[in-house]
Design goal:
This protein has 7 helices and 5 strands. It is an alpha+beta fold. The chain has 2 domains: 67 residues; 124 residues, Beta-Lactamase, CATH 3.30.450.40.
Length: 212
């Protein structure tokens, strides 16, 4: 039986096409030999093994930082939920959502979008014509996350760069209505916080059903 010989070029091509190979299989590093710097002071020789070890350390550091971020985010969520439970009237609840809740998650704006102009004026909500809401709504509990589209006519503030828009149950206001989250950065463009925003929106929706 003939075996195909693998030459150095094929190994090189494989590693170039799979740059994470050693990150995914770090145990192989212990079995490999690497060039080391000589005491002559040669600077063009790099210890690949040392570089890989440093790279793995940085990956662990990033994992730890992400874990810390997730931990503090979870604390914010739990704290906000406990605050939401306390409210017994719509006006106070909306004041909390537009101020304390917004600041807690470092957002530029959080508000409801409704087609009832009188109701919006009374509680300082965002008014949008029913026909325009229809274009955004899609279906109950639908969540859109994207760059702000000025053509929608929701907000005119130039400092809102990206937004998340959640479709509320029509039974709450007897009309299609939305929750609007506006940010001055690009956090809603990558969809990275999709589950978080969806969860928080459902908590707000649940409380609205109690209050309306």
């Amino acid at each position: 039986m003939l075996t195909k010989k693998i030459d150095k070029k094929q190994v090189e091509d494989f590693l170039l096409k799979n740059p994470d190979f050693f990150c995914e299989t770090p145990s192989i590093l212990a079995r490999l030999n690497f060039p080391v710097k000589e005491e002559s002071g040669e600077k063009n020789i790099v210890s690949f093994k040392d570089w890989m070890i440093s790279s793995l350390k940085n990956q662990k550091k990033e994992i730890i930082e992400n874990a810390k971020h997730n931990y503090f985010t979870q604390r914010k969520i739990h704290s906000s939920i406990l605050d939401i439970i306390k409210f017994s009237n719509f006006k106070d609840f909306m004041c909390f959502i537009k101020n304390d809740f917004r600041k807690n998650f470092d957002l530029e704006m959080v508000n409801l979008i409704c087609p009832n102009e009188k109701f919006c004026s009374e509680f300082n909500l965002l008014f949008l014509e029913e026909s325009k809401i229809e274009k955004i709504y899609n279906c109950k509990n639908s969540l859109i996350m994207d760059a702000t589209d000025q053509k929608l006519g929701i907000v005119e503030e130039q400092n809102i760069y990206s937004n998340a828009i959640f479709s509320l149950d029509e039974k709450i206001f007897d009309n299609k209505a939305l929750i609007f989250f506006g940010s001055k950065d690009n956090r809603f463009i990558t969809n990275r916080a999709y589950d978080l925003i969806s969860f928080l929106s459902k908590i707000i929706e649940y409380k609205l059903k109690e209050l309306m």
